[in-house]
Design goal:
704 residues, Rossmann fold, 5-stranded parallel β-sheet, 22 strands, 41% helix
């Protein structure tokens, strides 16, 4: 049964009990949301989920019989195609169960990356694979395009018999429903129109995959019924009320984010929670951001803007559990937290129910409708417009790296960054805009398998989080468009977004009647549509379309971001040193800033930013990059490192040998030197033509 370690009773719990919120939700009383006519009308249409455990809307015996028949027919691989709420609960159920406990191999395809699609087609034998396309509306663009690609591949071996390997889960009367019935697919399961996608875990969308996997459905639903009974009571000890009050009262205190901590197996539950919370509450300028897969070492000091929800789950190894428990010891005890435990896969049903009720009650407290997703629809419209009218022109293109020929990167950004003229400058403007309380989101329409791709992307994400002390999110496109995408666009303006897409090394074409010519073009259109929608809502966002999605290209991008972060931290340290003039040592250090502003450095081995200070005289104490992160202790050392002990002069922190050249002026006609300083090399890049014209052809920008 549900149990929770609650440190204290939060005031909002009494409010929910007094309003009879729990029982009214169970009774599908839409008047609970009478704070607006639109919210009440929407609630009246989408509260069918509230009693799915005690009054299921599907034939459980028929679902179990179908699952048994599929296994007996020798179909031992299930490929689920879908997006958002249609796939999150099935992924949670099937991945939480150990692979050797599943009676079939269960795969999920919710990415339009050709790399990911080819991977699925490689490991799935058409003769032994059942393909389920799950879509409430039946018209969601990503599942339809993915079905076209998979079906075209399967037909090469199965011919017309391919329809016996296809199953549809969709609302009655949808285009998908009609197609499946007309073509004679193996099965069609009808959803309930009053149950929204993210609230559909206990509907056919979640139960059919669970039965196929081999979950004990009687035990699963028994846990769900017990949870529904507990969560629909207007009582202080209602676990859903406790969760809702915890989230809401911390939200009122400025803790509008929570970190989800769990061992490896429980992280898939975090992805389901992420969509439920972000898409339900992130609108009208309000919202609570779930932060999944967080490094606990970033919580050693209370940042003041987040709480913690921790799940103890099953682990495969003793070391895994022990390592997780040890990581919790480093977290600041001042951060509010809730602790939960799940011991069996059947217990997941309890937590599905608890979270659904809690978020519905949070919507009531926050005065937002938890059942619609207006900004998701807006983003879809932008994508369709781009596919129809063509890709918008980027703000500029640039050779991605001057080290080797990797091609060109296309850079597009929100109007607030107008005037940025190279990649470094654009990323500098984006990342330097991060303020306390903000979060950074890396929205990547890229494959996450092979060649160290994910590691490179994670390097960017964690580098930003560590350097700026902010929440960072790695969002997988296009999945996040149906999840956190709603909060990113409709929630509070506290996000900084870097959107990534790339040309495909080997694209997958789609039939002529498809909405997009290929899967790669679809992904690029989705990334561009995301930028356009975010920009219209005044969000800080940049879209980089890379020349390819190889691991080496993504590693190069990670290095570029590291260099930008180092520059930002150096400049901030210098600015702080200049401002702190009361202390004598710090006052002397400001000379460095002033000298650097004179732009006397010629890029030679001799450092001319301070009299008598020469590159060789620094005794090896010049600031250097360390692992691509920061500059010689980063900002924490501030001006203390700006004084020079060995030569009695001032170090050239970031402006001469061993640091970044912020600006460099050379006489007209003089060549900019390229030379090595120890093991480091100066790489010079000129500004764009417009920038050179403004400065008489004399201003250059470079980093080491």
């Amino acid at each position: 049964m549900l149990s929770v370690d609650v440190e204290k009773l939060y005031p909002a719990a009494k409010t929910l009990v007094k309003a009879r919120a729990a029982s009214r939700i169970h009774a599908k009383d839409a008047t609970l949301y009478d704070f607006s006519p639109e919210a009440q009308a929407c609630a009246s249409d989408y509260m069918g989920w509230a009693d799915l455990a005690t009054s299921p809307l599907c034939d459980m015996d028929a679902i179990q019989a179908f699952a048994d028949e599929v296994v007996e027919a020798g179909l031992d691989t299930i490929l689920l195609i879908g997006q958002g709420g249609s796939t999150q609960a099935p992924m949670t159920i099937t991945k939480y169960n150990k692979h050797d406990s599943n009676r079939v191999k269960f795969r999920t395809l919710d990415s339009d990356s050709p790399v990911r699609v080819r991977e699925m087609l490689t490991i799935c034998d058409p003769h032994r694979t059942l393909v389920i396309i799950s879509s409430k509306s039946g018209g969601t663009i990503e599942p339809r395009m993915l079905l076209e690609a998979v079906r075209a591949s399967f037909e090469k071996e199965l011919g017309d018999h391919v329809v016996k390997h296809l199953v549809a889960i969709t609302d009655p009367g949808s285009d998908l429903d009609r197609q499946a019935r007309e073509e004679g697919w193996r099965a069609v399961f009808s959803g309930e129109p009053t149950v929204g996608g993210r609230f559909s875990a206990l509907s056919v969308f979640g139960l059919v995959p669970a039965a196929l996997t081999g979950i004990d459905m009687e035990a699963f639903m028994a846990h769900a019924r017990a949870a529904e009974e507990a969560c629909s009571e207007d009582a202080i000890d209602n676990p859903a009320i406790n969760l809702a009050a915890f989230l809401y009262d911390n939200y009122l205190k400025g803790r509008n984010k929570f970190s989800f901590l769990t061992p490896k197996r429980g992280r898939v539950l975090g992805l389901w929670i992420e969509q439920l919370v972000a898409e339900s509450l992130g609108k009208n300028g309000e919202g609570i951001l779930p932060n999944i897969e967080i490094d606990s070492l970033l919580l050693t000091e209370d940042p003041g803007d987040r709480s913690i929800i921790m799940y103890q789950t099953q682990t495969d190894l003793w070391d895994e559990r022990r390592n997780f428990e040890m990581s919790l010891a480093y977290i600041d005890n001042a951060i509010p937290r809730l602790n939960y435990r799940i011991d069996t896969v059947e217990e997941l049903a309890e937590h599905f129910v608890m979270w659904e009720y809690a978020i519905a009650m949070c919507g009531y407290l926050m005065q937002v409708c938890p059942f619609d997703q207006p900004d998701v629809a807006s983003a879809k419209a932008e994508v369709l417009d781009i596919l129809k009218n063509g890709q918008p022109e980027p703000d500029f293109t640039e050779v991605f790296t001057d080290e080797v020929d990797m091609g060109r990167v296309e850079v597009s950004f929100a109007p607030m960054f107008e005037g940025c003229e190279d990649l470094h400058e654009t990323l500098y403007a984006l990342l330097s805009s991060i303020q306390p309380g903000d979060f950074f989101a890396l929205n990547a329409f890229l494959p996450f398998t092979g060649e160290g791709r994910r590691e490179a992307i994670e390097q960017i994400r964690h580098g930003v989080a560590e350097s700026f002390g902010c929440v960072s999110c790695l969002e997988v496109g296009p999945r996040y468009l149906h999840s956190t995408g709603q909060l990113q666009k409709g929630g509070p303006n506290m996000g900084v977004f870097l959107i990534l897409s790339a040309d495909e090394l080997k694209d997958i074409p789609l039939p002529g009647e498809a909405a997009a010519p290929s899967l790669g073009e679809l992904a690029k259109a989705q990334a561009a549509g995301d930028l356009a929608t975010l920009a219209k809502r005044g969000r800080r966002c940049v879209h980089l379309h890379l020349p390819d999605n190889s691991g080496v290209t993504l590693r190069q991008l990670a290095q570029v971001v590291d260099d930008v972060i180092a520059d930002i931290l150096t400049d901030r340290a210098l600015a702080e040193a200049a401002a702190m003039a009361e202390d004598e040592e710090l006052a002397e250090a400001t000379v460095v800033v002033e000298a650097a502003g004179q732009r006397d450095c010629r890029g030679s081995r001799v450092c001319r930013c301070a009299p008598g200070c020469r590159g060789g005289g620094c005794g090896g104490r010049r600031p250097r990059r360390r692992g691509g992160r920061g500059v010689s202790g980063k900002a924490k050392r501030k001006a203390r490192e700006l004084t020079h002990d060995r030569c009695g002069r001032y170090s050239c922190k970031g402006y001469c040998a061993g640091g970044r050249f912020s600006t460099l002026c050379v006489p007209d006609g003089e060549e900019v030197p390229h030379q090595r300083l120890g093991a480091e090399r100066h790489r010079w890049r000129a500004y764009s033509r417009r920038g050179r014209e403004r400065a008489g052809g004399r201003v250059h920008h470079g980093i080491i």
